[in-house]
Design a protein that fits this description.
about 15% helix; about 70 residues; alpha+beta; elongated; three-stranded antiparallel sheet; 3 strands
Length: about 70
């Protein structure tokens, strides 16, 4: 929903395009899912990104994993 504020022309209805091989970045505060140009938008819009704060998906995260502990000390 927050990404709609940017007034870009890509659509969140294409959310079913997210797969287990989806490109993403794990930052200290959020999971950032991004698409390549032309995947869900025109080339001119660059890399459409969706920022998901960890607090919104904490119930899906294994907080006991070494990966999580590596940057959440």
């Amino acid at each position: 929903e927050e990404n709609k504020k940017d007034e870009l022309t890509y659509s969140v209805e294409n959310i079913d395009l997210i797969s287990s091989e989806q490109s993403f970045i794990a930052t200290e505060d959020a999971l950032v899912i991004y698409f390549q140009p032309y995947d869900i938008a025109s080339y001119a819009e660059g890399f459409p990104t969706f920022v998901i704060p960890y607090e919104q998906i904490i119930n899906l995260i294994n907080i006991d994993s070494e990966f999580w502990k590596s940057f959440k000390k």
